[in-house]
Amino acid sequence: MTVSEIDTLVHLLSKLPALGPRSARRAVLYLLKKKESEMAPLISALQNVYNTVQPCPICGNMDTQTPCTICQDEKRDKSILCVVQDVSDLWALERSHAFKGVYHVLGGVLSALDGIGPEDLKITPLIGKIQAGGINEVLLALPATVDGQTTAHYIAETLEGFPIKISRLSHGIPVGGELDYLDDGTLQTAIKTRRNL
Is the full-model pTM beyond 0.85? Predict the structure, then answer.
């Protein structure tokens, strides 16, 4: 039996977060029934994103501009640097409209089980930003998981010698919680009530 184009599309969609094979089949069927009104614009949008979006060389955000719009924004407080695990966390914090500083995307968290050490994350560029000066506070907005907290403590210890304030998110972030799944109000409270490590 040969694999059809439909099967290939179902297989590719089923790899997306929150979509299993059954949901992917439903999505493909929906798109096939609405080729002109839904599928064509989706194809165009995917092609545009593929051709234009790239990681920001300064913070790691994904944007069509280089540097990204956040790094270019003169109204941002560049003295406060928020360290996040991934771009999805950056986007979650931006949705809350509570943070007005700049970001640094680590690209993951330390994990002994997965073999992820400090050299696998963007910790060296983070240290470089601190050494360059102009940063007064580093806000560690990492997940309230064992690996997230291990990473936060590692970074706090690494930055101990610098004359900066090191804080972390506070109230409202549940243990084991991922930032991308939290509501805007919870994120706003967590940023406003951050505390020193």
Answer: no
